[in-house]
Automatic annotation (TrEMBL):
One GO process term, biological-process aspect: protein secretion by the type II secretion system
Protein name, entry field: DNA uptake protein ComE-like DNA-binding protein
Keywords: DNA-binding, Membrane, Transmembrane, Transmembrane helix
InterPro entries reported for this sequence: Endo/Exo/Phosphatase_dom_1 (IPR051675), RuvA_2-like (IPR010994)
Highest rank taxon of the organism: Bacteria
Matching PANTHER family: ENDONUCLEASE/EXONUCLEASE/PHOSPHATASE FAMILY DOMAIN-CONTAINING PROTEIN 1, ENDONUCLEASE_EXONUCLEASE_PHOSPHATASE FAMILY DOMAIN-CONTAINING PROTEIN 1
GO-annotated molecular function: DNA binding
Pfam families hit by this protein: HHH_3
CC annotations in GO: type II protein secretion system complex
Transmembrane segments: 12-32
């Protein structure tokens, strides 16, 4: 063992020199910036490529999101369902206002009227109104004729009750002879009449037919009237129950409840016209509702 660890001064100096060289080489390996400039350039290049790749991925993601959005096709706003209204961004209250308006057999004929009925915001209206599609006769109404036919001119002598045709027996051809009643309106009149077993109750029901203006209704009533009214069971306004009242068109449970409340406060109604004092009563339909009531 001694022979292995005994060195001369020259050998010791050589060993120390070798150790120092090893330490210097190790330090150079760990700390010297070998090819530093090339590495930085490579890192910058890698970052640029990564940014370009990220940008491409983001653009593809946006395209996919846009493609997955529900597409809106032209539609008639009068037939918006709960789901359709939800997808358009309408609230439940706005959808309910539209449905309540349509339950009264009324129609929306313009974007401004749609906003008036539903009370949607201007921003939402601006987004969805370009997709509104109304019937052709609303968007491009035919010009009104200025001349009446000789048979039904304003100067003709008014017909008596006996001379008028029974509205419940009138044909489409007879109805079309009235100025302002064409093929579509005559079909609507007949279709409304056929909805009920027995036809019309009274002339006032003509106001229920969509598209008939007050002027046209007056001209129809000059030539036609209900002579054989449909038989109905009239309810006593001062004794009818809530369940009986809701069987009348345009009266729901809430209105029926208010009618009974008002009836109790008044100790009975003295006139059918007093219904106008009932809370939330559909005033525009009172003449129709009065057909089903008596005192």
């Amino acid at each position: 063992m001694k022979s292995h660890f005994q060195f001369s001064n020259q050998q010791r100096n050589g060993i120390f020199l070798l150790i120092i060289l090893i330490i210097i080489a190790q330090c150079v390996y760990w700390f010297a910036p070998i090819n530093f400039g090339d590495s930085n350039d490579q890192n910058i290049l890698d970052h640029e490529q990564l940014d370009a790749f990220r940008s491409e991925v983001d653009s593809l993601r946006l395209i996919e999101i846009e493609n997955n959005k529900p597409k809106i096709y032209p539609f008639n706003p009068n037939y918006i369902t709960d789901y359709k209204g939800y997808t358009l961004g309408m609230t439940n209250e706005e959808i309910d206002r539209l449905h309540k308006f349509r339950d009264q057999d009324q129609w929306v004929n313009s974007a401004s009227q749609f906003q008036q009925v539903t009370k949607i915001s201007d921003s939402l209206l601006e987004v969805i109104s370009p997709y509104f599609k109304f019937p052709e006769w609303v968007t491009n109404p035919k010009p009104k004729q200025q001349v009446y036919t000789a048979t039904y001119s304003e100067s003709s002598t008014p017909k008596t009750y006996e001379q008028k045709i029974d509205l419940n027996l009138a044909t489409e051809i007879q109805l079309r002879k009235v100025y302002g009643v064409g093929e579509k309106l005559s079909k609507r009149i007949i279709a409304y009449r056929n909805k009920f077993n027995g036809g019309f109750i009274a002339d006032i029901e003509l106001s229920e037919i969509y598209g008939l203006s007050p002027e046209v209704i007056d001209r129809i009533k000059e030539q036609f009237t209900v002579k054989t009214p449909r038989k109905i069971k009239k309810l006593n306004l001062n004794s009818a129950t809530r369940d009986e009242l809701v069987t009348i068109q345009y009266i729901d449970y809430e209105v029926a409840h208010h009618i009974i409340e008002e009836r109790t406060l008044r100790d009975g109604f003295k006139s059918l016209d007093e219904l106008t004092k009932v809370q939330d009563f559909p005033l525009q339909k009172i003449e129709i509702i009065k057909l089903y009531l008596h005192l």
